[in-house]
Write a structure and sequence with these properties.
This protein is an alpha/beta fold. The chain has 2 domains: 1-17 and 52-129 and 204-308, Rossmann fold; 142-203, no CATH class. The protein contains 10 helices and 10 strands. It has helices at residues 95-102, 120-125, 144-148, 150-154, 159-172, 188-200, 218-235, 246-252, 281-284, 288-304, and strands at 53-64, 67-79, 84-88, 110-115, 118-119, 130-132, 206-210, 238-242, 255-260, 265-271. Strand 4 (110-115) and strand 5 (118-119) form a beta hairpin. It is globular and about 50 Å long. It starts with 52 loop residues before the first strand and ends in a 13-residue tail after the last helix. It binds adenosine-5'-diphosphate (ADP) and magnesium ion. Magnesium ion (MG) is lined by residues 95-96. The site of magnesium ion has 2 residues, from helix 1.
Length: 317
C-alpha cells in the first residue's frame, strides 16, 4: 500500500456512520453461531461526535452446572471515537466476555453497553463495526477474495470497486497470491489474515479484535501491528483490542485496560501517550517511552496478581 500517511486519528465525522443502510444483513457472518436475522428497528440518525463504546456498570454472570461464574463485575469503560484501547489480563479475566457484550453476541446481567450512542443490538444490526476474533470464521465455500469482498458485496459495492478494494486488502495482509485459494488450503495464520482483511474491508469506525494476531509468526505480527496503526490513522477508526502480549498492547494503544480475574474487573487503565504518527511506527519499538510503557503495564498487572515474572496467561514478548 501507499507511503502517504494522513494522520487524523480522531475523525468521528467520517466513515460508515454516514452511509446508506446496509442490505442483506442476515448473510453477513458473525464470529459465533449468531446471525443477524432481523432488519434494523427505527433508523437512528448518526451522531458523529459520540463515543465509540460506553460500558456502564456492567456485570456478567454465567449460570453453569457447577454454579454461577461471575465473569465481569462493575465494568465502566468509555472508548472515544478514534481511540485505540487494549484489554489485557490473565486468562479467564473476562476479556472475551466483554468483547462479546460490546458485539451483542451476549447480554450483560446488569448495566448497559452502547456503541456510537446506540444499543449494542442496534449497532450490530447496523453493522457499525468490523470484527476479527480468535477464530477466523471464514466461509469455506468462498475463495479468499470472495471472503474478503463479502461485506462489500452485501452492501452493494460495484464489481469494479470491490475488485480494487479486495486487491488492496490482500496486498496489505500479504496474500495477493492466494486470492483464488479456499480457506482450507491456507495455514491458520493466513486464514486469520483473511479475516482481518475482511474486518477492514469497509473501513469501519470501530474494530473489535480479540487476539487477532495470536496465531501469526512474530514478523507477520509486527507487520500487521504497523498496518493496523496506519489504517487507524487513515480511517480514524476506534479499536477495542484483546491481547496477551504486553508489548503489543503498548505499541498499539492509546490506553491499556489492565483487568484482573475472579471476578473480572478493571484493575487499572494505563495511558500510553506515545507518538503514534505512522511514519514513526517502526522507530517506536526501539524507544525509551515504549519500554517505559511496557514496565508500567507489567507493574499494573502484577498489582493484581503478585507473580514475580509475569502474570499467568500474559506474555512479555
Ligand atoms: N458461555 C460461558 N458459560 C460459562 N462460563 C463462561 C462462558 N464464557 C466465559 N465463561 C467464563 O467466564 C470467565 C471469563 O472468560 P473469558 O471472557 O473467556 O476470559 P478471557 O477472554 O479473559 O480469557 C471464565 O471463568 C470463563 O470460564
Ligand atoms: Mg479470551
Amino acid at each position: 500500500m501507499g507511503t502517504h500517511f494522513r494522520f487524523h486519528r480522531a475523525r468521528p465525522g467520517s466513515g460508515r456512520l454516514g452511509r446508506h443502510p446496509r442490505r442483506h444483513p442476515q448473510e453477513l457472518p458473525t464470529c459465533g453461531d449468531q446471525r443477524v436475522t432481523q432488519l434494523p428497528e427505527t433508523p437512528v440518525a448518526p451522531t458523529r461526535t459520540v463515543d465509540a463504546v460506553t460500558v456502564t456498570g456492567v456485570d456478567k454472570t454465567f449460570d453453569t452446572r457447577s454454579g454461577q461464574v461471575d465473569a465481569l463485575t462493575g465494568i465502566d469503560l468509555t472508548v472515544s471515537a478514534g481511540e485505540f484501547i487494549s484489554l489485557i489480563g490473565p486468562s479467564g479475566c473476562g476479556k472475551s466476555t466483554l468483547m462479546r457484550l460490546i458485539a451483542d453476541l451476549d447480554q450483560p446481567t446488569a448495566g448497559t453497553v452502547t456503541v456510537f450512542g446506540k444499543s449494542a443490538k442496534q449497532a450490530r444490526l447496523d453493522q457499525d463495526y468490523g470484527i476479527a476474533f480468535q477464530q477466523a470464521g471464514l466461509l469455506p465455500w468462498r475463495t479468499v477474495a470472495a471472503n474478503v469482498g463479502l461485506p462489500l458485496e452485501l452492501h452493494g459495492a460495484s464489481g469494479r470497486d470491490r475488485t480494487a478494494r479486495v486487491g488492496e486488502l490482500l496486498d496489505m495482509v500479504g496474500l495477493s497470491d492466494f486470492a483464488d485459494r479456499y480457506p482450507d488450503q491456507l495455514s491458520g495464520g493466513m486464514q486469520q489474515r483473511v479475516a482481518i482483511a475482511r474486518a477492514l474491508a469497509e473501513k469501519p469506525d470501530l474494530l473489535l479484535m480479540d487476539e487477532p494476531f495470536g496465531a501469526l509468526d512474530e514478523m507477520t505480527r509486527e507487520r500487521m501491528q504497523t498496518e493496523l496503526l496506519r489504517i487507524c490513522a487513515e480511517t480514524g477508526a476506534a479499536v477495542v483490542f484483546v491481547t496477551h502480549s504486553i508489548p503489543e498492547a503498548v505499541y498499539l494503544s492509546d490506553r491499556v485496560v489492565v483487568m484482573s480475574p475472579r471476578p473480572g474487573r478493571i484493575q487499572e487503565i494505563v495511558p500510553m501517550g506515545l507518538n503514534r504518527d505512522p511514519a514513526h511506527a517502526e522507530a517506536l519499538r526501539e524507544e525509551r517511552a515504549f519500554f517505559d510503557g511496557v514496565t508500567a503495564v507489567r507493574e499494573a498487572l502484577h498489582t493484581g496478581s503478585p507473580v514475580p515474572t509475569g502474570a499467568r496467561g500474559v506474555e512479555n514478548r
